[in-house]
Amino acid sequence: MKKEDKTKIIDSLVEQLNANNKVYLADCSSLTVEKVNQFRRACFQKNVSVTVVKNSLLQKAIERAEDSRLTGLIPALKGATAIMFTEVGNAPAKLIKEFRSKNPKIEKPLLKGAFVEENIYLGDKELDALANIKSKNELIGEVIGLLQSPIQRVVSALGNREEKDAA
After folding, report:
1. Do 55 and 102 touch, CB atoms closer than 8 A?
2. What is the CATH classification number for the domain harbouring 125?
3. Are 96 and 108 in contact, with CB atoms under 8 Å apart?
4. pTM here?
5. 37: exposed, middle or buried (C-beta count within 10 Å: 0-12, 13-18, 19+)?
6. Do 73 and 56 sit in the same domain of this protein?
7. Same structural domain for residues 120 and 149?
8. What are the C-alpha distances in Å from 142 to residues 129, 134, 135, 148?
9. Helical H runs in the chain?
């Protein structure tokens, strides 16, 4: 690969890293082409972009990225690496778990590392913790539900009282 091509790839990765605050690194090596295509299709359906990158180029992009906390992912850059970008923090973790459950004989894709909600997660052991992170919309929904609960009780009590008074 020419130096110009490498520079373009690094610049593109830097742009993506700066634009996304939810980054996953996975190992999809040893998967068959059919399984990789299934995984990519599942990612596409969930609006998760997946790209296989060279570790050396990704390391240079991480070092050049605006957020210096991303350098915590550098120890995970060993072996084949697929980088995943998403808007929903737990979507790639759920995808990986779901893919493994549908294919129990396959141990991959493995989570190598993630940068989600301004925290670094290293290793496949963090997959469950990442899958359980609630998205912004889920948290807003819970807060709204909690706020509505007391109001609904008051309205219900007032409605019951009016019915008793009318009887």
Report:
1. no
2. 3.30.70.1730
3. no
4. 0.78
5. exposed
6. yes
7. no
8. 19, 10, 11, 10
9. 3-19, 33-45, 55-64, 91-102, 127-131, 136-166
Range of the domain at 107: 3-133
Closest CA to 82 of 133, 42, 129: 42
pLDDT digit string (tens) for the chain, length 167 residues: 888 899 999 999 999 999 988 999 999 888 889 988 999 999 999 999 999 999 999 999 999 999 888 999 999 999 889 999 998 888 899 999 999 888 888 788 899 999 988 889 999 998 888 888 877 777 788 888 878 777 777 777 777 766 666 66
Identify whether residues 81 and 141 lie together within a single domain.
Answer: no
Give the separation between CA 25 and CA 126, rounded to whole angstroms. Answer: 12
In terms of domains, do 123 and 163 share one? Answer: no
DSSP 91-116: HHHHHHHHHHHH-TT---SEEEEEEE
Q: Are residues 102 and 162 in the same domain?
A: no
Sheet with 81-85: strands ordered across? 49-53, 81-85, 23-27, 110-116, 119-122
Q: Which are the contacts of 77, defined by CB distance < 8 A and separation ≥ 6?
A: 25, 55, 58, 59, 112
97 and 158 assigned to the same domain: no
